[in-house]
């Protein structure tokens, strides 16, 4: 007949072999999942880094445009100020010498016409 001890020993070895294979399968799945997460994290880090670089580049471009706009506004302001000073000097030269001050002259000039809304 059958050798029951050999059959029991063989079944025990098969059981331990299956347990070992299940452990190897579980560990390979776990390691592949961890590796996949690591690759995904690296890809996300690269995307985040690219997004941060893009935002900083756009910020730099916007800042540059803002500085140019500020320069234009400053130049226009200086031109307007110089024009007003020149106008005030020419008005003081053209003003009658009857002792009127610039303030009196400014108050004596009529205000500019106002736009009227159509009725």
Automatic annotation (TrEMBL):
Keywords: Membrane, Transmembrane, Transmembrane helix. Residues 89-119 are annotated as: Disordered. Residues 109-119 have a biased composition (Pro residues). It comes from Haptolina brevifila. The chain crosses the membrane at residues 12-32. It comes from the Eukaryota. This is Uncharacterized protein.
């Amino acid at each position: 007949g059958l050798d029951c001890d050999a059959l029991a020993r063989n079944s025990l070895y098969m059981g331990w072999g299956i347990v070992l294979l299940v452990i190897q399968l579980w560990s390979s799945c776990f390691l592949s999942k961890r590796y996949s997460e690591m690759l995904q994290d690296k890809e996300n880090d690269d995307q985040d880094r690219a997004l941060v670089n893009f935002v900083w580049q756009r910020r730099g471009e916007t800042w540059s445009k803002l500085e140019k706009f500020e320069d234009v506004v400053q130049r226009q302001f200086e031109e307007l100020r110089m024009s007003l000073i020149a106008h005030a000097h020419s008005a003081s030269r053209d003003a009658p010498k009857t002792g009127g001050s610039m303030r009196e002259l400014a108050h004596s000039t009529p205000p500019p016409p106002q736009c009227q809304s159509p009725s």
